[in-house]
Amino acid sequence: MTRSTRIALCPGSFDPITLGHEDIIRRSLALADEVVVAVGHSPSEAKRHLFGVKERVALIREVFADEPRIVAADFEGLVVSYARELGAAVVVRGLRTAGDFEYESRMARMNRELAPEVDTVFLAADPRHGFVSASLVREVWGLGGDVDRFVPAAVLRRLHEKRAEAR
Ligand code: ADP
After folding, report:
1. Residue 118 Cα distances to 78, 84, 115, 163, angstroms
2. How many whole angstroms from 167 Cα to the centroid of ligand 1?
3. Ligand 1 pocket residues where CB is under 6 Å
4. Whose CA is nearest to atom 21 of ligand 1?
5. Whole-number pLDDT of residue 48
6. Which pLDDT score, from 0 to 100, does residue 165 have?
7. Ligand 1 atom nearest to CA at 14
8. Rounded average pLDDT over 61-89
9. In the chain, N or C terminus with fewer CB closer than 10 Å?
10. Residues 83 and 118: beta-carbon distance below 8 Å
């Protein structure tokens, strides 16, 4: 039997990476030799983001600096095309709510149509982070609320720097 590196792909927008994402990504290590955390983007959506793509990738690298089996990258276009390019065995997605399931199961079925060799694995969100989303973090932070319980320390540091720069 030939042994090759088994890759799990964790795609998302990660604007910014939250403790919910971090939990799913670390748990993905049980499924693969290497986990690729990939920030998906398209040029048209550039303006609406809190952090630019390169900055999001840099933050992800900082969060997983302790774990050489987790790497960060960015990609454009379809998740399945990028999964194929990487030779990823699985795409991992987190499920928080029934709403997530509704959306994610349709997406997984479409992706299987497009690329039958790339399967999707769902991990149930840890209840501690089940209500955390990057969009809510952006909203709470934008309105002056505390987000220190929802994001990794590196993100919190960068948020404070960004606020200071804007002054
Ligand atoms: P968000 O929905 O927070 O903007 P992304 O679009 O970047 O996140 O999603 C990347 C993946 O992370 C998706 O599979 C999403 O379901 C999952 N995810 C997001 N937040 C959480 C959380 N709090 N717990 C578990 N999984 C999560």
Report:
1. 12, 7, 6, 41
2. 30
3. 12-14, 18, 20-21, 24, 93-94, 96, 100, 125, 129, 132-135
4. 20
5. 78
6. 87
7. 7
8. 97
9. N
10. yes
Residue with the nearest Cα to atom 5 of ligand 1?
A: 12
CA 21 to ligand 1 center in whole angstroms: 6
Asked if residue 65 has pLDDT above 80, the reply is yes
Return the bridge partners of 124, or none.
95
Q: Is the Cβ–Cβ distance between 75 and 83 less than 8 Å?
A: no
Q: How far is the CA of 19 from the centre of ligand 1 (A)?
A: 10
Q: How confident is the model at residue 167, as a pLDDT?
A: 78
> Whose alpha carbon is nearest atom 25 of ligand 1?
125
The pLDDT tens digits for 76-115 are 999 999 999 999 999 999 999 999 999 999 999 999 999 9
Cα–ligand 1 centroid distance for 130 (angstroms): 9
Residue 47 tokens read as 């303006």
